[in-house]
Amino acid sequence: MSDAPPSLQDRLARVRDGIADAARAAGRDPGELTLVVVTKYHPASLVRELAALGVTDVGENRHQEAQAKAAELADLDLTWHFVGQLQSKKARQVRRYAHVVQSLDRGSVVDAFAPNESEPEPPVIDGFVQVNLTDDPGRGGVAPDDVEAMVERIVGTGTIALRGVMAVAPLDEEPRPAFARLRSISERVQRLVPTATDISAGMSGDFPDAVLEGATHLRIGTAITGNRPVSP
Known about the structure:
With 232 residues, this protein is an alpha/beta fold. It has one domain (8-225): Alpha-Beta Barrel (TIM Barrel), CATH 3.20.20. The protein is built from nine helices and eight strands. It has helices at 8-25, 44-52, 63-72, 91-95, 107-112, 147-157, 175-192, 207-212, 222-225, and strands at residues 34-38, 57-60, 79-82, 100-104, 125-130, 160-166, 198-200, 217-220. The chain has an eight-stranded parallel sheet. α6 (147-157) crosses α7 (175-192).
């Protein structure tokens, strides 16, 4: 019996099977779920391998790295999701390659996507409100009580199509109750924007709980890509 570690194809298949199992456990159709493979610190060549295996959605945390990969892989039909904390001064650069920004968490970032004198008719980008599910204001995300105000600000730009909400589970509690809170917040958002039905939640260690609480987008990295590469 071989002791070789599982291949990229094996890891991807295992995660896809896990997503299908979680969907069935929740009484949902696995086809409702979008797998976003987070490839932070991994080379563009790995993203190309993932695309050959049928991956269509890729997530990146860092602008400079994401920009370079998107340029190198422009021949592929990929949907690029920016999932890291975004600086307002980088927002317009991110829009040039990203199709979705999942980390809208501050008014200054949202405002950076709005039209101005230098770009009076900017393109529309899909966006998610990132919600902070902890009591720590230092964590990324909008406080739950401030979500409606952020939604109105996003809609007011005219250049962000609000898809829904995004969050990371807190480290100090079980993930499912946190995802249940996010689901409730999602329902509030839909009262303002009925089409904003998506929920981006769940990563390598907790995606089954996210699926049980209605997640539509799963941001999974390590379970598929393996550990972060070691710098040479």
